[in-house]
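Re: the request from the purification team.
They wanted to know what the chain is likely to look like in 3D before they choose a buffer screen. I agreed to run a prediction and write the result into the notebook, where they can find it.
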Amino acid sequence: MCRKWSLMLLIVLLSGCAQEVVREVVKPVQPVVKLAETDKRAYNKALWAIKEKRFSKAEVILDKLIKKYPQAAGPLANKGVIYAKKNKLEKAAEYFQKALEKNDRLVQVRNHLAVAYRKQGKFSDARNMLDAAIVIDPYYANAYYNLGILYELYLQDAKKALENYQFYLDLKKGGDKQVARWVSLLQRQIKAASK
């Protein structure tokens, strides 16, 4: 009986373990294509407007830059960021995909797209996008973080969640106390399940 209550308490604790904390959907993407000096200033104004949640202003600037620099991935990706912040996930995914068509090595954009996929319930697509980001840059910590969330909350695979959270913590300079707590709880859950 005591073991049953202990297991129930552990389940309650773990249900609050990993929450929908998305660390990068809000972070603008820096340009890769060289911009003229005046356009760099305009791009920075757009990034600032995104940060300040002045999306209309940012979109006007980004649309001009998309027309002027059709090969640039950054303005497209940041339009995706705006749509993600507005919770228009299909539109966000569309712009992230367009950005990746311009430069498929942008791990940050892959991370954004994976989060959009996850929120749409496209878990396999999200996992594939994060796996591809790790192949491109095995030191990109946020891909491991989002894989951990995907495995823990959506795919119900505690061992793979734990593995990815641990990779994330290994790469995260300065640590992350919240994720360290999740790791501790998952370790206890896995140990309890193996008894």
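For the purification team: DSSP finds ten helices and no strands in the chain.
Please add any questions underneath this entry.
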